[in-house]
Automatic annotation (TrEMBL):
<dbReference type="InterPro" id="IPR017853">
    <property type="entry name" value="GH"/>
</dbReference>
<dbReference type="Pfam" id="PF01915">
    <property type="entry name" value="Glyco_hydro_3_C"/>
</dbReference>
<dbReference type="InterPro" id="IPR001764">
    <property type="entry name" value="Glyco_hydro_3_N"/>
</dbReference>
<dbReference type="InterPro" id="IPR026891">
    <property type="entry name" value="Fn3-like"/>
</dbReference>
<dbReference type="GO" id="GO:0045493">
    <property type="term" value="P:xylan catabolic process"/>
</dbReference>
<dbReference type="GO" id="GO:0046556">
    <property type="term" value="F:alpha-L-arabinofuranosidase activity"/>
</dbReference>
<feature type="domain" description="CBM6">
    <location>
        <begin position="858"/>
        <end position="978"/>
    </location>
</feature>
<feature type="signal peptide">
    <location>
        <begin position="1"/>
        <end position="36"/>
    </location>
</feature>
<keyword id="KW-0732">Signal</keyword>
<dbReference type="GO" id="GO:0031222">
    <property type="term" value="P:arabinan catabolic process"/>
</dbReference>
<comment type="similarity">
    <text>Belongs to the glycosyl hydrolase 3 family.</text>
</comment>
<dbReference type="GO" id="GO:0008422">
    <property type="term" value="F:beta-glucosidase activity"/>
</dbReference>
<dbReference type="GO" id="GO:0030246">
    <property type="term" value="F:carbohydrate binding"/>
</dbReference>
<dbReference type="InterPro" id="IPR036962">
    <property type="entry name" value="Glyco_hydro_3_N_sf"/>
</dbReference>
<dbReference type="Pfam" id="PF03422">
    <property type="entry name" value="CBM_6"/>
</dbReference>
<dbReference type="InterPro" id="IPR006584">
    <property type="entry name" value="Cellulose-bd_IV"/>
</dbReference>
<dbReference type="Pfam" id="PF14310">
    <property type="entry name" value="Fn3-like"/>
</dbReference>
Length: 978
């Protein structure tokens, strides 16, 4: 039985659960003695509705059993034959953490294809492989998937940029829906897997991520943030959301009432909402948020807000179940609150086929699907279709017949890196290997990194490492530098490097006691393999340890390497005790690369990032440029061989310096999985005509961006929608080996048609993009807004008519004066082209909508519905719900534009909390005519409100821009002028 919508709320018919069991003729209650797998149990009958099956199973559970299901690790209930169940298998671009499985391009790369049908196929493959593990159920496996990530990529410095799709909410929603539909199987009644959207809401910074608050004014919330989450939920392509770590408008996202009030209104199905890992513990007095005194209070608030499953304390459910039990005993919760959450959980489990004979529709899928030949082929196609050609001065495509003399160099030329949420590579085709396979002959290669020695100037001894596969603790032990004393120095930018031992090819990492050369590549939650050399005035270096954390007593301060034992074993020391090392180059990486490329037909340089170092979960980027040594390497290779092609392999927009001017060809890809090398070769040699397009603005400099903590995309001109500067590469950008001509857009029912012709000599794909711009509006509007797109394949000379849907409702924006969506009357530009700036054809559309009337401030107005502001933060009106505006300094102000005061208003009234001070009512500007002042005595609590009033002068009349100027520490909830 599906719920019926009433004013955006799902209303379900109340049916007593015990009655349902009797109607089914079962007569078995929670204390019955029927066999655990008795097919007479209604919850095991696939012919019954999901709701009826859930009602039956819920009625059979004891209170303790129901409470036990609220933790991520849901225990088995043997008496009913119910198996254990776990929320949270990672599946961002392949099944992760369960062993070898197909690794597809990172999510950002998948979106760069601009091909929803392809992404749906990838999602389906990942869903199949998740099911493929179901027969053996390895530790960590489950059918509730924590993917995709749909946080809009508003700031490229976000450490988790690789996990998202786009800075545009519409494109994000389309891709999430496609991937999610593949994961679910697309059957509304039967789930292949149950995907969970991450991370609700406004989670786009890692710095202090559990204590920072993301301020979302209503327009940003409605037009930007929510629009990335809503489409997949509406399309039944996701079965819930994960709450994020951060606060939103001063309230922890773990207790955000929108989990119920908004998210659940987007679907007719039950949703299963989960917390992020350990987030419940952040809520309490001992956590980072200190929002509630006890875990019982926090868990109760989370359940009431819309959380169903608590992800915390790993597999130990006792703290959660004890807290919920305590909340029930003290009246913070009712059993019906628990029932509501458990109903959501059981609904998903029923739809997954857990209680169907044989596991239901997808119960027979076995491990033969994992990394199948079909999935390998799909991974190669996805990686090739995702590549974006940034520049091409007739350097590409390469000719396999005449271009056999190729060198492939660079730090990423012969390796593949995986990210935190990546699966385990079943095999790895590196760029060097892919190009060699394409040519059918070995290619010259060099990583282009320096090999160095480190000698303590005080002792004259060299740092040495072990030569066996497991390595040894690094020591200062040798008087001369043999192979054991040599290290390959990889520069990742921002002053960070990694050291790989020449003795065994393993990276050096800290193991909480020593530094050992035993790591295949940098990784782990605490990335222990990174260092920061600090050059001293005398030319020596201190080697600072730059891992995430140490267990030393001075862990919060910089720590350095130095001998800590009588045998010279290296450990962590304070800066004053740090060893001074000479850093001598025994082999120049640039010289070796130059030697490899001299005389070759083409030099391919592969540079980029290391996903564990250049920003990732818990670590934002401060630098979007290539590492200095990588940039220098490209310049050296280019000087030695003018036919230089640069491949940039990373997961975020890159500033690139002058390289884009100096080299003839630039190709960008994310870390693209096991088939990276084959896919790159397919593109470089023209077997695949590149058609990937950028899903983010590539800025020329970090100075083009505001603080990463500033979430107001409208006021601070974020993303292509509002950015007024000159980008390095614009949103939607990407080149092809062929060319395309666009006809004029023609209005048809439901949108526009445009003829697109391939005018070149090669077959290729074009991504046809439709944008709109509202010429005149009461409110600040985007410069452009993506409304539709289609990736089309065209043979040389072929023309296709592309249909791009556009409804009048698509032109709506959020009207803060009346808290509703509105389409304004006026002229809208309709722009069709190959990117947000490369507009090939345009027309205009006259819309008969409505005119937003002047504000009526005689009605109670929420302060958050301002038009402009300065010096304020959005804060929690109460711990349960509501947003207020808090002044973060004297002189903070709010603007309420075009307000109709009629023949005059005489009284101002407002609900305020917090500090003592005043609220000034001014006209025209924050320093304009003062028409009244309300004195605030202070309430002593940010959640205790009082009403203050002020008499207004006779100047308060007509149509005016009204400003409220607020003293520091005052919270303003609502106000009116009458």
């Amino acid at each position: 039985m599906k719920g019926k919508r009433r004013h955006g709320t799902i209303v379900r018919r109340a049916v007593p659960v015990l009655t349902l069991a009797l109607v089914a003729g079962l007569g078995v209650t929670a204390t019955g003695t029927a066999a655990a797998d008795d097919p007479a149990y209604a919850f095991r009958d696939p012919k019954l509705s999901v709701d009826r099956r859930v009602d039956d199973l819920l009625a059979r559970l004891t209170l303790d059993e129901k409470i036990s299901l609220l933790h991520q690790h849901q225990p088995a209930i043997p008496r009913l034959g119910v198996k254990s169940f776990k929320t949270g298998t990672e599946a961002l671009h392949g099944v992760a953490w369960l062993g070898e499985a197909t690794v597809f391009p990172q999510a950002l790369g998948l979106a760069s294809t601009w091909d929803p049908s392809l992404i749906k196929r990838v999602g389906s493959a990942v869903g199949d492989e998740t099911r493929g593990f179901q027969q053996e159920r390895p530790a960590g496996w489950g059918l509730n998937l924590w993917a995709p990530v749909v946080n809009p990529l508003r700031d490229p410095r976000w450490g988790r940029n690789e996990e998202g799709y786009s800075e545009d909410p519409y494109l994000t929603g389309v891709m999430a829906t496609a991937y999610g539909t593949g994961l679910t199987g697309g059957d509304p009644d039967h789930l292949k897997t149950a995907p969970t959207l991450k991370h609700y809401l406004a989670n786009n910074n890692e710095a202090d991520r559990t204590s920072t608050s993301s301020d979302l004014r209503p327009r940003v919330l409605k037009e930007y943030e929510e629009q990335a989450f809503k489409p997949a939920i509406e399309a039944d392509a996701a079965t819930g959301v994960m709450s994020s770590y951060n606060l939103v408008n001063g309230r922890p996202a773990t207790v955000n009432p929108a989990l119920n009030d908004e998210v659940r209104t987007w679907s007719d199905h039950d949703l299963l909402n989960v917390t992020d890992a350990y987030a419940p513990n952040n809520l309490v007095s001992t956590g980072s948020q200190k929002y509630f005194g006890t875990l019982a209070e926090g868990n109760a608030a989370a359940l009431k807000a819309g959380i169903d499953s608590f992800t915390t304390d790993d597999a130990n459910s006792a703290p959660t179940t004890s807290a919920v039990t305590s909340a029930l005993s003290t009246g913070l919760l009712k059993e019906s609150d628990v029932d509501t959450a458990v109903r959501h959980i059981l609904s998903i489990r029923v739809r997954l086929g857990e209680f169907d004979p044989g596991g239901g529709k997808y119960g027979s899928i076995d491990k033969s699907v994992v990394n199948s030949p079909a999935h390998q082929k799909l991974a190669r196609k996805a990686a090739a279709d995702a590549a974006v050609l940034l520049k091409n001065d007739n350097a590409l495509p390469l000719k396999a017949s005449s271009g056999k003399n190729v060198a492939v160099v660079g730090p990423l030329a012969d390796t593949l890196y995986t990210d935190w949420y990546s699966g385990t590579l079943p095999y790895a085709v590196t760029p060097k290997e892919g190009i060699a396979a394409k040519l059918g002959t070995p290619v010259a290669s060099s990583e282009g990194v320096d090999r160095i020695t480190l000698k303590n100037v005080d002792t004259g001894k060299y740092v040495t490492a072990g030569s066996d596969a497991d390595g040894e603790a690094l020591k200062e032990s040798a008087g001369s530098a043999g192979t054991a004393g040599q290290f390959d120095l990889f520069d990742w930018g921002a002053g960070l490097v990694t050291l790989r031992s020449a003795a065994n090819g393993k990276y050096v990492g800290y193991n909480w006691s020593n530094f050992v050369n035993d790591q295949a590549q940098p990784g782990g939650w605490f990335v222990q393999q990174q260092f920061a050399p600090e050059r001293q005035d005398d030319g020596t270096y201190l080697l600072r340890y730059a891992g995430y954390e140490t267990k030393e007593p001075w862990w919060s301060n910089p720590v350095y390497l130095g001998p800590t034992g009588d045998d010279g074993t290296l450990g962590l020391v304070a800066k004053t005790d740090a060893a001074h090392y000479t850093k001598d180059v025994v082999r120049s990486g640039a010289d070796e690369a130059v030697a490899a490329v001299k005389g070759k037909d083409t030099a391919v340089v592969v540079v980029g990032s290391m996903p564990a170092i250049n920003g990732r979960e818990n670590n934002d980027r401060t630098d979007m440029g290539l590492a200095p040594s990588q940039e220098a390497l490209v310049k050296a290779v280019r000087a030695a061989n003018p036919n230089t092609v640069v491949v940039v392999e990373n997961s975020y927009p890159t500033t690139l310096g002058d390289l884009r001017k100096e080299v003839p060809a630039l190709l960008w890809t994310t870390h693209a999985g096991q088939e990276t090398g084959n896919a790159l070769a397919d593109v470089l040699f023209g077997d695949v005509n590149p058609a990937g397009r950028l899903t983010q603005t590539w800025y020329a400099s970090e100075s083009d961006l505001p603080s990463i903590l500033e979430y107001d995309t409208i006021k601070y001109d974020r993303t292509y929608q509002y950015f007024k500067g000159d980008p390095l590469y614009e949103f939607g950008y990407g080149l092809s080996y062929t060319s395309f001509r666009y006809g004029k857009p023609r209005r048809v029912d439901g949108g526009y048609e445009v003829a697109v012709t391939n005018t070149g000599r090669r077959a290729g794909d074009e991504v046809v993009q439709l944008y709109t711009h509202q010429r005149v509006s009461r409110d600040k509007q985007p410069l452009k807004r993506l409304e539709a797109f289609e990736r089309v394949s065209l043979k040389p000379g072929q023309t296709r008519t592309v249909k791009l849907p556009l409804k009048t409702g698509d032109l709506a924006h959020w009207d803060v004066t009346r808290s509703k969506w509105v389409v304004e009357s006026g002229t809208y530009d309709v722009l069709v082209g190959a990117s947000s700036e490369d507009i090939r054809s345009r027309t205009s559309l006259q819309v008969r909508g409505e005119t937003i009337p002047a504000r009526d401030l005689s009605r109670v107005t929420r302060a958050e519905n301002f038009d402009d502001y300065a010096g304020v933060r959005l804060v929690d009106e109460s711990k349960a719900r509501g947003t207020a505006v808090g002044a973060a300094g004297d002189g903070a102000w709010l603007k309420f534009a075009d307000s109709h005061l009629g023949g005059g208003v005489s009284k101002f009234g407002a609900r305020v909390a917090g500090a003592a001070g005043k609220v000034e009512i001014r006209l025209g500007s924050p320093t304009g005519t003062l028409v009244g002042t309300a004195q605030v005595d202070g309430t002593g609590s940010p959640y205790t409100y009082e009403t203050v009033t002020a008499s207004l002068s006779s100047a308060a009349k007509g149509r005016q821009d009204v400003y409220l100027v607020v003293s520091d520490g005052i919270r303003l909830s609502t106000f009116s002028l009458r």
